[in-house]
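STRUCTURE:
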């Protein structure tokens, strides 16, 4: 199931009567990128969503919600996960990076859990940062995590916990698919 994240970002921007330039200036992203996201030409990575969520004072889960319920707990069945495809593959046929939201209805969460799948090795090593902390656990495959100037190889079962203000990026180490449990705090 795909979610119209771009429309939600555009709605937040218009509700606040902000221009693309104003959002870009405050978030550090270009107006062109904000426009591409709003028009669903580009699906933002978690770090970008986190920065936009903080700017608009909403939680990341807002972009995956249909309606919010007050709950003390939430069970998300494997078939009910909300999946967002992020990047078109090198071949231009599929998506190279997806994430599945593991919690979508719980109010006032302090963390956002995702399953991130990186399908291939990206040539792009642009790093991102945002407020909060992040925990990554490799479920399958071999990952490479860029943290500021460090390159860390993580194999199945390995984990890393870091301050999200560090410049970071998750990559496939060897070009094969990697599945990672990612938990991001606000």
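SEQUENCE:
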């Amino acid at each position: 199931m795909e979610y119209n994240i771009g429309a939600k970002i555009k709605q937040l921007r218009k509700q606040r009567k902000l221009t693309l330039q104003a959002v870009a200036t405050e978030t550090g992203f270009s107006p062109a990128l904000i426009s591409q996201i709003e028009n669903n030409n580009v699906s933002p990575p978690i770090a970008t969503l986190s920065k936009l969520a903080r700017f608009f004072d909403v939680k990341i889960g807002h972009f995956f919600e249909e309606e919010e319920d007050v709950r003390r707990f939430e069970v998300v069945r494997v078939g009910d996960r909300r999946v967002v495809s992020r990047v078109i593959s090198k071949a231009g046929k599929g998506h190279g990076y997806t994430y599945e939201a593991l919690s979508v209805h719980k109010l006032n969460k302090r963390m956002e859990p995702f399953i991130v799948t990186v399908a291939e090795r990206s040539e792009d090593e642009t790093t991102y940062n945002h407020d909060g902390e992040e925990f990554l656990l490799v479920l399958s495959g071999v990952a490479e995590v860029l943290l500021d100037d460090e390159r860390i190889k993580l194999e199945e079962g390995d984990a890393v916990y870091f301050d999200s203000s560090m410049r970071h990026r998750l990559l496939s180490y060897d070009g094969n698919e990697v599945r990672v449990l990612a938990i991001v705090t606000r």
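REMARK: Helices lie at 5-15, 20-27, 31-38, 46-56.
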